[in-house]
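WARN  no MSA supplied for this record, continuing single-sequence
INFO  ligand: adenosine-5'-triphosphate
INFO  echoing inputs
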Amino acid sequence: MLIVSIDTSGLCGAALASLETSEGVTLASAGTLEEASASWATDEACVVVTGPTVAPDEVFAATSRWSADQEPVAVIMVTPEPSAELLRRALRAGVRDVLGVGEAEEALSESVSAAVTSLAPRVESGDRAPAGARVVSVFSTKGGVGKSVIATNLGVALAGPLKRPTAIVDLDLQFGDVAIMLQLAPERTIYEAVQVFDRLDAEMLRAYLTPHDSGLRALLAPVSPEDAEAVTVNRIGAIIELLRGMVDFVVLDTPATFDDVVLTAIDHSDDVYAVATMDVASIKNTRISMQKLRQLGYDDGLLHLVLNRADSKVWLDAAEVEKAIEGRIVAKIPSDRLVPRSVNKGVPVVLDAPRSVVAKSMLDLARSIADSKGVSGDVAQGTARAGVGA
Ligand SMILES: Nc1ncnc2c1ncn2[C@@H]1O[C@H](COP(=O)(O)OP(=O)(O)OP(=O)(O)O)[C@@H](O)[C@H]1O
Ligand SMILES: [Mg+2]
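INFO  complex generated
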């Protein structure tokens, strides 16, 4: 991966120097944006860092052009004054990150590493799709819309009734609810797994997955919120890719934010289920985050819309919602008292009340996910089962 900086201030060079030791990373510098675009090979992914002396307008124009040409490029901009207006324009142009001069020294190398990780799988995604698990994430930047309820029910439905080897990863690293919703004791979590990261392979990772009665294997969130920091995006990406070789489906539950962890989850996902509830605030929030994802270059085919708590009493017209959000609704999950009851019991509603309408709607969604990936061949399936069983 190539990292090109355009910077006469010298600020970026010093902050980027530490990255040169990472495997497969080459640092280069360019005098202008034109020169930068001449320095990457057509199919090589590249991170372009623009220093505080490069005019923002030029950065926006070049970024828009590269994104229209579908170049695998992430642009990170260091600027003297990151005003709200500038951030808005940067986002619209598809700039990956904007850092103020004051924070660049500390934050730049991390921002570049995250961009490097996020570019890598997308460039290779063509080769990776048929082999290994299908990775699906459940997403919303609004809290309390039902992400964890949906993620745990999908995981349990895939592993249990649909009998497909499945793992769930709780990426809500600070406030994860998967353990509670599945009534699992978090004896070993993703925090313990990253402690042995240097030696971690599929065989070892298996020992950090907590088994649920349904057959689902859960990689739980750290017990203490402060341990979340050790779980970096590079490690999360590597763990998802390890799981891909171990099961048929990986379900990612995510926090209600739009940070690097969530972007990493999306980067590694084959499908993203954005959850909206039927209120104006949630629909507006979903529309904005879907727009942001499209601006960041995520393919529309990746994003699917799930309506939760679709209450008949305040039923908005589905077509209206689709139009507002510019996305297609793939599932409608009704509001039902059975859901909070199942959450309190720690038994997902697809197991607790499988004949209810709410359980059936989640089972249908799980079935459509299961159908999107054929059953692995006998040999491969045997391996996967042995891998996550026992
Ligand atoms: N279809 C539903 N019917 C009734 N209640 C629901 C439904 N879906 C979710 N809930 C309730 O909403 C609460 C919040 O759900 P959940 O924890 O899954 O949201 P979340 O999006 O994961 O929130 P956070 O972002 O805070 O993690 C749950 O306690 C659950 O009882
Ligand atoms: Mg949650």
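The pocket of adenosine-5'-triphosphate (ligand 1) is lined by residues 140, 143-149, 172, 177, 256, 308-309, 333, 335-336, 339-340, 343, 358 (CB under 6 Å).
INFO  checksum written, moving to next record
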